Amino acid sequence: MRVGVLALQGAFREHLLMLGSLGVDTLKITRSEHLVGIDALILPGGESTAMVRIAAGTDLFATLRERMASGLPVFGTCAGLILLSDRLSDDSLGGFDRLGGLDITVARNAYGRQRESFTAPLTVQGLNEPVAGTFIRAPQILDLGPEVEVLASHNDTPVLVRQGAIWGASFHPELGTDGRFHAEFLHHLGAAV
């Protein structure tokens, strides 16, 4: 299995390291032609405004939307969740294109500023032990459609969701050394990691 990591901006290196620690073949994705031959894609945390501006004027997001419509599994974390959300609570991205695909509404930076970042234990469907979720200027899922499954919540608010082959997390599972989020995503795809 080969997993691409969107490498326009943000915590893509941390995802690459985490996947590498699981023995997964990885590829940095910066152009649409890089999407050829990957089996899944991770959209990292970072600055969603920077990501959409960098992608604007290229065919990267259009090609990625086509691949997602054909079933490409995608896991978006923090800013990646914002890119995957069908709706934002405001127009804070200035009308730039996102990917969509998750029937959710998201509020950007809803958990507070950088200094209000925190780590919380999360009980995740499919994992036996709680795991730490790191929330840094994290988006909050405000509502979700009927096809969206909640895999973990924090204070009764969904923070890890799945709709078919598309996963989204409000937090950063790539920070630290616990690879169970990534492994669970890959196991769901049939990978032996």
Characterization of this structure:
A hairpin with an 8-residue loop joins strand 7 and strand 8 (131-135). It is globular and about 40 Å long. It contains five helices and twelve strands. By secondary structure, the chain is an alpha/beta fold. The strands form three sheets. The chain has a seven-stranded mixed sheet. A three-stranded mixed sheet has the order 5-6-9. The chain has helices at residues 12-21, 48-55, 60-69, 79-84, 180-188, and strands spanning 2-6, 25-29, 40-43, 74-77, 85-88, 102-107, 118-122, 131-135, 140-144, 149-154, 157-163, 166-169. The termini are close together. The protein is 22% helix and 31% strand.
Q: Which terms summarize this structure?
A:
193 residues; alpha/beta; 7-stranded mixed β-sheet; 3-stranded mixed β-sheet; 5 helices; 12 strands; 22% helix; globular
Structure summary:
The chain is of the alpha/beta class and 193 residues long.
**SS elements, strand count:** 12
Helix amount: 10-25%
Distance between the termini: 10 Å
Please tally the helical runs, counting DSSP H or I stretches of 4 or more residues.
Answer: 5
Describe the largest sheet.
Answer: 7 strands, mixed
User: Which structural class best describes the helix and strand composition?
Assistant: alpha/beta
Low-confidence stretches: none
What is the residue-averaged pLDDT? 91
Any idea what the shape is? globular
Provide the gyration radius in Å. Answer: 15 Å
**What is the string of SSEs from the N terminus onward?**
EHEEHHEHEEEEEEEEH
Question: Beta-sheet strand percentage?
Answer: 25-35%
Strand sequence of the main sheet, in spatial order? 2-1-3-4-12-11-10
